[in-house]
Amino acid sequence: MSDHSSSKIIYEVHANNESGNNSPSNDRNEFSKTVTELENCRGNKTESDNAEETSSFERSDKWVWDTMAVGHACVKSVVPLELLRHIYLPQQSHDRIFDPTTRTISYLQPRSYLPVKSLIQGEKKRILVTGGAGFVGSHLVDRLMLIGHEVIVLDNFFTGRKNNLSHWMGHPNFELIRHDVVDPFLIEVDQIYHLACPASPPHYQYNPIKTVKTSVMGTINMLGLAKRVKARFLLTSTSEVYGDPEEHPQAETYWGHVNPIGPRACYDEGKRVAETLTYAYMHQDSVDVRVARIFNTFGPRMNENDGRVVSNFIMQALKGEELTIYGDGLQTRSFQYVHDLVDGLILLMNKDYMEPVNLGNPDEYTIREFAELIRNEVNSSCKIKTLPAPTDDPKKRRPDISRAEQILGWKPRWPVKQGIGETVKYFQRQMEAGLIG
Ligand SMILES: O=C(O)[C@H]1O[C@H](OP(=O)(O)OP(=O)(O)OC[C@H]2O[C@@H](n3ccc(=O)[nH]c3=O)[C@H](O)[C@@H]2O)[C@H](O)[C@@H](O)[C@@H]1O
């Protein structure tokens, strides 16, 4: 199937939306056809197509055809991009009307839902997502729901938000439970994606003891549950286990360079212990485990006050404020768009591989270059302000993703610029809707 025809499939869904005929039920017929066709076209890719995809990584602003859908046919996670956008970038809100004069919100009932795939018994899994109301968690939940699974979310709403999942509330395949993973929780499930933990430096440093407790006790509780119900367990670890790295780029074999008593230690060491626990349960109790080491990720539903560089720069540029660069701005990061991460997590969960796997986009920017990129995307001429560098701020970070490429057949498909474009649009719409200021 050619690039052209796959774009057309997506366009048909898009065209329905643009014509104002955008209710979930109107998408339904198109959706089933679209997913089947997209799965076929992904499944039919030749070896040479794949070889081309895994060629050396270069910064690119090209919109590749694969980004019109997300997911991988081999684990049945393909979803048309327009369907996902219908959730996080709706033309107008599905379930509420904001009145700017009185600054009130009217919630609409009854509601309808986007179509989810109908899976046969055995294919349909019961999946627990801890931290599922957060930024990454909610995108993972969207995908798992759309591809037909039953999803149970645990969240204590410290950084997660109900709004991120409001479009699934009441759906027969969905359950949201307010629960803190530091306390035990019992449920029968097939798979556990363990995401619960604040990830932004200001958030995890706000209460470092709680951060360590979340990583250690939360992971023990979820591993204990996995052991008891024989569920497969996936830990979302982090590039922070490499600390301020002395090896570049960072491969999974690198043991890291972490200050164990610094302000970042609560998160870095917490996640390192979480990995230790995961492999202890694997060796001692034969728990079936997966470990993803996630590098800097961005996208819609980041908290505007999150404190991380992507949301800070975008919000500052949109409000015409100065962009705050910490330190000299020569430190580097490699940013991946959230859909790529979700693709990688679902692949990893469903493949037979138990060692840690890096998931990140190797496209590396200095923070100064990144500020420039955001300024261009927002079309802003705002100035740059330099603030002191945070203690132990890693000086460079870039994933070596050879393992993910070889084992999972995964590599990022979203150019950073393209992802930033969507994220800017998201924050703009949130501002227009009066949800953030
Ligand atoms: O985004 C993520 O996924 C990661 O975010 C943080 O790691 P960090 O790389 O420090 O993320 P940011 O807070 O976004 O900072 C990135 C760089 O930008 C700088 N920065 C941040 C914010 C800002 O306003 N200005 C600025 O220059 C920071 O000093 C740092 O050098 C977390 O510690 C990671 O666990 C998490 O995986």
UniProtKB/TrEMBL annotation:
Compartments, as annotated in UniProt: Cytoplasm; Golgi apparatus, Golgi stack membrane
Any GO BP annotation: D-xylose metabolic process
InterPro entries for this protein: NAD(P)-bd_dom, NAD(P)-bd_dom_sf, UXS-like
UniProt topology in membrane: Single-pass type II membrane protein
Cofactor field: NAD(+)
CDD domains noted in UniProt: UGD_SDR_e (cd05230)
GO molecular function: NAD+ binding; UDP-glucuronate decarboxylase activity
Biased composition (Basic and acidic residues): 39-48
Record field: compositional bias (Polar residues): 16-37
Record-level GO cellular component terms: Golgi cisterna membrane
Pathway: Nucleotide-sugar biosynthesis; UDP-alpha-D-xylose biosynthesis; UDP-alpha-D-xylose from UDP-alpha-D-glucuronate: step 1/1
Gene3D superfamilies: NAD(P)-binding Rossmann-like Domain
SUPFAM superfamilies for this protein: NAD(P)-binding Rossmann-fold domains (SSF51735)
Catalytic activity reported: UDP-alpha-D-glucuronate + H(+) = UDP-alpha-D-xylose + CO2
Documented EC number(s): 4.1.1.35
Record key words, sorted: Cytoplasm, Decarboxylase, Golgi apparatus, Lyase, Membrane, NAD, Signal-anchor, Transmembrane, Transmembrane helix
Disordered: annotated span: 1-54
Domain NAD(P)-binding: 128-422
Family membership: Belongs to the NAD(P)-dependent epimerase/dehydratase family. UDP-glucuronic acid decarboxylase subfamily.
UniProt-recorded name of the protein: UDP-glucuronate decarboxylase
Organism: Glomus cerebriforme
Taxonomic placement: Eukaryota, Fungi, Fungi incertae sedis, Mucoromycota, Glomeromycotina
